[in-house]
Amino acid sequence: xxxxxxxxxxxxxxxxxxxxxxEDKEILKGVNLTINKGEVxxxxxxxxxxxxxxxxxxxxxxxxEVTEGSIRYYGEDILEMSPDERARKGIFLAFQYxxxxxxxxxxxxxxxxxxxxRTAKAEEAAAxxxxxxxxxxxxxxxLMKEKMALLKMDDAFANRYxxxxxxxxxxxxxxxxxxxxxxxxxxxxxxxxxGLDIDALRVVAEGVNNLAGPEMGILLIxxxxxxxxxxxxxxxxxMMEGRIVQEGGxxxxxxxxxxxxxxxxxxxxxxxxR
Length: 274
Description:
Elements: E1 13-22, E2 25-35, E3 40-44, H1 51-59, E4 65-73, E5 76-77, H2 83-89, E6 91-93, E7 101-105, H3 106-127, H4 137-150, E8 161-162, H5 168-182, E9 186-190, H6 198-211, E10 217-222, E11 235-240, E12 243-248, H7 251-259, H8 261-273
Parallel strand pairs: 3-10, 3-11, 6-9, 9-10
Antiparallel strand pairs: 1-2, 1-4, 4-5, 7-8, 11-12
C-alpha cells in the first residue's frame, strides 16, 4: 500500500544533503539517510557527532537552522511544518513532551495526544471523501489497557502525574506507551541509553519489538551497541563530525563495539587520504 497513488517509488522518509547549525556553528555537514516502512535503522556515533541534533531537527526544534538540504516525508518537505503538524502526519519523536507536567495524569496527557492525531486523520479522511471514526473515551481506555498489557505496565501507571517522580526507565516506558497509542508511520527514538539499567533497557527494547512491523519505520539513535543486542536493526549508520561516514547491516555495530570510534575514524581518514 503506498501513501498515495503517485507515491509508489517515493521513499517514506528521506534526508538529503542536510546541513544545519546552531548559533552559526555548523553541526550537520551533509547528512543523507533514507528510511522505508518496515525498516529498523540504527544511527550510532560518538558524543558530539550530531546524532541528537538530527533528531531535534526532524522534530522541528526552533533553535537549529537548516542551511541546506531537505527532509521529505512521502515526498513532502517537512522543514516548513510545525512540530505539531509533523506529529499529526505520523512522525513520532520519543522526546516530544516536557519532562514534568504536575497535575496532568499520564492517561489524560496520552488521551489528548492520541485524540489530536486521530482527529487530524479523520479530517484528512473526510477531505479525501472517506470517513474515520471519532475516538470515544471508552475506546481510549480500552486501547490504553491493551497497550499497557502489551508493554507489561501496571495499570496504576496511567493515573500518575506525567513524569513526576518517574525513574529513567519509567520515562522511557511512558514514551513507548505513547508510541504504541499513536501508531506512527515513522518512530524516532533518541535513545540516550544513559541512566537506563539493563531491566529498563529490556523493557524499552521489548516495547519497540512488539510495536515494530511492516507499517512502521524506526530510527534508533544510540551511542552504544548494547541496545542493539535487544533490537535487531536492518541497517546501521555511523555518524561522525556531522556526516554519516559508514553504513552496513547489524554486523557493523558489533565491529564498532570491538574497534571503538577512534579506530574507525582513523580508517576513514586513511581511506580518504588515498
